[in-house]
Amino acid sequence: MHAKRMDKIATGVLYAISGIIVAILASLILYILVRGLPHVSWHFLTGKSSSYQAGGGIGIQLYNSFFLLVITLVISFPLSLGAGIYLSEYAKKGRLTNLVRTCIEILSSLPSVVVGLFGYLVFVVQFKYGFSIISGALALTVFNLPQMTRNIEDSLQHVHHTQREAGLALGLSRWETVIHVVVPEALPSIITGVVLASGRIFGEAAALIYTAGQSAPALDWSNWNIFSVTSPISIFRQAETLAVHIWKVNSEGTIPDSIEVSAGSAAVLLIFILIFNFGARKLGSYLHKKLTSA
C-alpha cells in the first residue's frame, strides 16, 4: 500500500510539473498573439518599414528572413550531412573522433552573440564581405552546424544494422549502402531535424546584428544582378531580418507606433516558428508512413 501511495504521489507531481510547463508556454504564446495579431494586416506583411513615421510594414524583413534561411541551409546542410555520415558510418573510436565530437559540443554551447562577433571579425572584416546576407549565412552555419550534425548522426544510427547488412549482401559497396539504403531510411528524421533547425535560424537575431546588418534597402524586383545592393537575390547586400527588426524597433524607439510594430512582428515571427515546429512533426510522420508503406 505504501509503495502504491508513493507511486500515485510521484505520478501526480510529474503531471503537475508537466502542466506548469505547458501552462507557461501556452500563456507566453497567447500573450504574444493577443497583443500582436490585431496589428497584423496584409499591408503590414507586405509594406515597407518606416524609421520615423507610423504605419510601416515588415515585407522586406520577412523576405530577408526567408532568403537568409535558404542560403544558410544551402551552406550548412551538405556540411552537416557529410559530418553526420562520417561520425555515424565511418568514424572509429580514437583521438580524431573524440576531437571532432568535442568541437561539436563546444560549438553547440557557444552563445549566439559570440558567434555574431566571430562572424563580424572573420566574414565582415577579414573576408571583406561587409554586412551582408553571405556573412550572416556563414555565421548562422557556424551556429547551426552542431545541432544539424548531431541530428543527422542520431538519425543514421537509429537505422537498424540489418539494413546495412542487407545492402552489403546485395553486393553494394559501403558508400553505396549508405547513400542508397541508410540515408533514405533515415530521411524522415533528417528532414524533421532540418525543419526544426530552420525555425531556430528564422528566429535568430544576436548573430545577425553583427553580420547581416541592421538596414533593409528597398528591393528592385526587376534587378536580378546578384552583386547589386537592390537585387532581391543578391547575397552581398545588407539584410535586416524580422528578428533583428524587432530588436531594432525596441532599442531605437524612433517609430511613433513602435509598440504596435514590435507586437505585430513578434506575433508573425512566433507563428512562423510554430509552423516550422508543428510542420516538422507532420512532415516526418508523413514521410515515415510513405516510406514504410512503399
From TrEMBL:
GO terms for biological process: phosphate ion transmembrane transport. The chain crosses the membrane at residues 12-34, 66-87, 99-123, 129-146, 261-280. It comes from the Bacteria. GO terms for cellular component: plasma membrane. InterPro entries: MetI-like, MetI-like_sf, Phosphate_PstA. PROSITE patterns: ABC_TM1 (PS50928). Residues 62-280 form the ABC transmembrane type-1 domain. Keywords: Cell membrane, Membrane, Transmembrane, Transmembrane helix, Transport. One of its GO terms (molecular function) is phosphate transmembrane transporter activity. It is a multi-pass membrane protein. The keyword Transmembrane applies. Pfam families: BPD_transp_1. It is found in: Cell membrane. PANTHER family: ABC TRANSPORTER PERMEASE PROTEIN YQGI-RELATED, PHOSPHATE TRANSPORT SYSTEM PERMEASE PROTEIN PSTA-RELATED. Belongs to the binding-protein-dependent transport system permease family. CysTW subfamily. This is Phosphate transport system permease protein PstA. It comes from Streptococcus parasanguinis CC87K.
